[in-house]
Protein backbone atom coordinates (compact mmCIF):
# COMPACT_ATOMS: atom_id res chain seq x y z
CA UNK A 1 0.00 0.00 0.00
CA UNK A 2 1.40 3.36 -1.05
CA UNK A 3 1.13 6.01 1.66
CA UNK A 4 1.95 9.71 1.85
CA UNK A 5 4.47 9.16 4.66
CA UNK A 6 6.37 6.66 2.49
CA UNK A 7 6.57 9.17 -0.37
CA UNK A 8 7.85 11.83 2.01
CA UNK A 9 10.61 9.55 3.31
CA UNK A 10 11.61 8.59 -0.23
CA UNK A 11 11.79 12.27 -1.16
CA UNK A 12 14.11 12.93 1.78
CA UNK A 13 16.29 9.98 0.76
CA UNK A 14 16.47 11.24 -2.85
CA UNK A 15 17.54 14.72 -1.74
CA UNK A 16 20.15 13.37 0.65
CA UNK A 17 21.55 11.02 -2.00
CA UNK A 18 21.98 13.97 -4.36
CA UNK A 19 23.84 15.85 -1.60
CA UNK A 20 21.63 18.89 -2.06
CA UNK A 21 22.13 21.51 0.66
CA UNK A 22 25.16 19.55 1.81
CA UNK A 23 22.97 16.78 3.15
CA UNK A 24 21.06 19.15 5.48
CA UNK A 25 17.71 17.57 4.62
CA UNK A 26 15.13 16.85 7.31
CA UNK A 27 11.65 15.37 7.46
CA UNK A 28 8.94 16.15 9.96
CA UNK A 29 10.33 13.45 12.27
CA UNK A 30 13.90 14.70 12.26
CA UNK A 31 13.76 18.50 12.27
CA UNK A 32 16.66 19.82 14.33
CA UNK A 33 15.86 21.83 17.46
CA UNK A 34 19.24 23.60 17.57
CA UNK A 35 20.93 26.01 15.20
CA UNK A 36 21.91 24.49 11.86
CA UNK A 37 24.05 25.49 8.91
CA UNK A 38 22.61 26.84 5.69
CA UNK A 39 21.37 25.94 3.16
CA UNK A 40 18.84 23.64 4.79
CA UNK A 41 15.84 21.72 3.44
CA UNK A 42 12.70 20.56 5.26
CA UNK A 43 10.21 18.06 3.79
CA UNK A 44 6.64 17.68 4.99
CA UNK A 45 3.26 16.52 3.68
CA UNK A 46 0.57 19.05 4.60
CA UNK A 47 -2.09 18.04 2.05
CA UNK A 48 -3.55 14.77 0.82
CA UNK A 49 -6.55 14.63 -1.55
CA UNK A 50 -8.45 11.39 -2.06
CA UNK A 51 -10.95 11.29 -4.97
CA UNK A 52 -13.34 8.37 -5.42
CA UNK A 53 -13.26 6.59 -8.76
CA UNK A 54 -17.01 5.94 -8.63
CA UNK A 55 -19.96 4.97 -6.41
CA UNK A 56 -20.23 1.39 -7.64
CA UNK A 57 -18.24 -1.55 -6.36
CA UNK A 58 -15.50 -1.58 -3.75
CA UNK A 59 -13.83 1.68 -2.63
CA UNK A 60 -11.22 2.87 -5.13
CA UNK A 61 -9.42 6.21 -4.98
CA UNK A 62 -7.08 8.46 -6.90
CA UNK A 63 -4.88 9.94 -4.17
CA UNK A 64 -2.77 13.05 -4.64
CA UNK A 65 -0.22 13.86 -1.95
CA UNK A 66 1.39 17.26 -1.80
CA UNK A 67 5.04 16.94 -0.83
CA UNK A 68 6.14 20.34 0.41
CA UNK A 69 9.87 21.01 0.25
CA UNK A 70 11.07 24.12 2.08
CA UNK A 71 14.61 25.28 1.29
CA UNK A 72 16.27 28.10 3.23
CA UNK A 73 19.47 30.01 2.56
CA UNK A 74 21.43 32.63 4.45
CA UNK A 75 23.64 35.22 2.78
CA UNK A 76 26.20 37.44 4.61
CA UNK A 77 25.78 41.22 4.44
CA UNK A 78 26.74 42.76 1.13
CA UNK A 79 26.92 46.31 -0.19
CA UNK A 80 23.93 47.87 -1.96
CA UNK A 81 21.61 45.12 -0.82
CA UNK A 82 23.32 42.66 -3.16
CA UNK A 83 22.60 39.87 -0.69
CA UNK A 84 18.99 39.77 -1.87
CA UNK A 85 20.00 38.90 -5.41
CA UNK A 86 22.51 36.33 -4.19
CA UNK A 87 19.89 34.69 -1.98
CA UNK A 88 17.39 34.56 -4.83
CA UNK A 89 19.95 33.01 -7.17
CA UNK A 90 20.79 30.40 -4.52
CA UNK A 91 17.12 29.50 -4.15
CA UNK A 92 16.69 29.18 -7.90
CA UNK A 93 19.67 26.82 -8.01
CA UNK A 94 18.26 24.75 -5.14
CA UNK A 95 14.87 24.55 -6.87
CA UNK A 96 16.41 23.15 -10.04
CA UNK A 97 18.48 20.61 -8.11
CA UNK A 98 15.45 19.48 -6.07
CA UNK A 99 13.30 18.97 -9.15
CA UNK A 100 16.01 16.94 -10.89
CA UNK A 101 16.50 14.77 -7.80
CA UNK A 102 12.81 14.07 -7.12
CA UNK A 103 10.74 14.24 -10.30
CA UNK A 104 10.83 10.90 -12.13
CA UNK A 105 13.11 9.40 -9.48
CA UNK A 106 12.77 5.62 -10.01
CA UNK A 107 12.29 4.82 -6.31
CA UNK A 108 9.37 7.25 -6.17
CA UNK A 109 7.91 6.89 -9.65
CA UNK A 110 7.40 3.13 -9.31
CA UNK A 111 4.71 3.93 -6.69
CA UNK A 112 2.97 6.67 -8.69
CA UNK A 113 0.68 7.18 -11.64
CA UNK A 114 2.09 10.66 -12.33
CA UNK A 115 3.41 13.94 -10.91
CA UNK A 116 0.27 16.02 -11.62
CA UNK A 117 1.61 19.43 -10.62
CA UNK A 118 4.38 21.51 -9.07
CA UNK A 119 4.04 24.90 -7.39
CA UNK A 120 6.76 27.13 -6.00
CA UNK A 121 7.05 30.40 -4.15
CA UNK A 122 10.14 32.35 -3.05
CA UNK A 123 10.59 34.97 -0.37
CA UNK A 124 13.60 37.08 0.67
CA UNK A 125 14.07 38.92 3.97
CA UNK A 126 16.99 41.35 3.97
CA UNK A 127 15.91 43.65 6.79
CA UNK A 128 18.53 42.39 9.26
CA UNK A 129 22.27 42.12 9.04
CA UNK A 130 21.98 39.11 6.73
CA UNK A 131 19.67 38.15 3.92
CA UNK A 132 17.49 35.10 4.41
CA UNK A 133 15.70 33.38 1.56
CA UNK A 134 13.04 30.68 1.57
CA UNK A 135 11.68 28.50 -1.22
CA UNK A 136 8.43 26.58 -0.81
CA UNK A 137 8.14 23.93 -3.53
CA UNK A 138 5.04 21.71 -3.68
CA UNK A 139 5.25 18.55 -5.76
CA UNK A 140 2.07 16.57 -6.36
CA UNK A 141 2.34 12.79 -6.33
CA UNK A 142 -0.63 10.79 -7.59
CA UNK A 143 -1.23 7.13 -6.79
CA UNK A 144 -4.00 4.54 -6.51
CA UNK A 145 -5.59 3.05 -3.42
CA UNK A 146 -8.10 0.21 -3.62
CA UNK A 147 -10.23 -1.88 -1.26
CA UNK A 148 -7.20 -3.97 -0.26
CA UNK A 149 -5.73 -0.86 1.40
CA UNK A 150 -8.61 -0.37 3.85
CA UNK A 151 -10.72 -2.30 6.36
CA UNK A 152 -10.50 -6.01 5.54
CA UNK A 153 -13.90 -7.62 4.89
CA UNK A 154 -13.83 -11.05 6.46
CA UNK A 155 -16.30 -13.53 4.98
CA UNK A 156 -17.18 -17.13 5.67
CA UNK A 157 -14.99 -19.46 3.58
CA UNK A 158 -16.86 -21.60 1.07
CA UNK A 159 -16.10 -25.25 1.76
CA UNK A 160 -18.64 -26.99 -0.47
CA UNK A 161 -20.58 -26.08 -3.62
CA UNK A 162 -23.59 -28.05 -4.87
CA UNK A 163 -25.05 -27.50 -8.36
CA UNK A 164 -28.47 -28.88 -9.33
CA UNK A 165 -29.87 -28.58 -12.88
CA UNK A 166 -33.67 -28.58 -13.18
CA UNK A 167 -34.10 -27.79 -16.84
CA UNK A 168 -36.91 -25.84 -18.48
CA UNK A 169 -37.70 -28.53 -21.02
CA UNK A 170 -40.74 -30.69 -20.12
CA UNK A 171 -39.44 -34.11 -19.17
CA UNK A 172 -42.47 -34.96 -17.04
CA UNK A 173 -45.62 -32.89 -17.63
CA UNK A 174 -47.63 -34.40 -14.74
CA UNK A 175 -45.25 -35.69 -12.03
CA UNK A 176 -44.89 -34.24 -8.53
CA UNK A 177 -41.58 -34.67 -6.72
CA UNK A 178 -40.89 -34.24 -2.98
CA UNK A 179 -38.19 -31.81 -1.77
CA UNK A 180 -37.39 -30.22 -5.14
CA UNK A 181 -34.07 -28.32 -5.16
CA UNK A 182 -35.81 -25.06 -6.16
CA UNK A 183 -39.42 -25.32 -4.94
CA UNK A 184 -40.33 -21.73 -5.80
CA UNK A 185 -39.41 -22.36 -9.45
CA UNK A 186 -41.42 -25.55 -10.01
CA UNK A 187 -44.25 -25.26 -12.56
CA UNK A 188 -47.33 -27.00 -11.11
CA UNK A 189 -48.62 -30.13 -12.91
CA UNK A 190 -50.01 -30.52 -15.43
CA UNK A 191 -47.32 -28.46 -17.08
CA UNK A 192 -46.28 -27.56 -20.60
CA UNK A 193 -42.95 -26.07 -19.54
CA UNK A 194 -40.43 -26.73 -16.79
CA UNK A 195 -38.83 -26.81 -14.35
CA UNK A 196 -40.70 -29.86 -13.11
CA UNK A 197 -39.11 -30.11 -9.64
CA UNK A 198 -36.49 -32.80 -10.10
CA UNK A 199 -32.75 -32.51 -10.68
CA UNK A 200 -31.80 -33.80 -14.10
CA UNK A 201 -28.15 -33.37 -13.29
CA UNK A 202 -25.89 -32.16 -10.52
CA UNK A 203 -22.39 -31.58 -9.28
CA UNK A 204 -20.82 -31.53 -5.80
CA UNK A 205 -17.55 -29.61 -5.40
CA UNK A 206 -15.39 -29.76 -2.25
CA UNK A 207 -13.24 -26.68 -1.62
CA UNK A 208 -10.45 -25.88 -1.64
CA UNK A 209 -9.05 -28.03 -4.40
Brief sketch in words of this structure:
This protein is of the alpha+beta class and 209 residues long. It has helices at 4-17, 82-102, 106-109; strands at 25-27, 40-52, 61-75, 118-125, 131-145, 160-165, 201-206.
Could you explain the architecture of this structure?
The strands form two sheets. A five-stranded mixed sheet has the order 1-2-3-5-4, with helices on one face. Strands 6-7 form a two-stranded antiparallel sheet. The chain has 209 residues and is of the alpha+beta class. A hairpin with a 5-residue loop joins β4 and β5. The longest helix is centred in the middle third of the chain and has 21 residues, at 82-102. The protein is 19% helix and 32% strand. The protein has helices at residues 4-17, 82-102, 106-109, and strands at 25-27, 40-52, 61-75, 118-125, 131-145, 160-165, 201-206.
Give the overall form.
rod-shaped
- DSSP summary, beta strand count: 7
Radius of gyration: 33 Å
Portion in beta strands: 25-35%
pLDDT averaged over residues: 88
Amino acid sequence: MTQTAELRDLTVAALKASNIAGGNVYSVRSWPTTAMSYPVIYVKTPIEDRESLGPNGAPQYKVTSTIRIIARVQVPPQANDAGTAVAEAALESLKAQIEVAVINNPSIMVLLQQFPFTRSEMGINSEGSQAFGELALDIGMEFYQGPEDFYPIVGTPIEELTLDADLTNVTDPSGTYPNPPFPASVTPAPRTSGPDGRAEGGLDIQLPQ
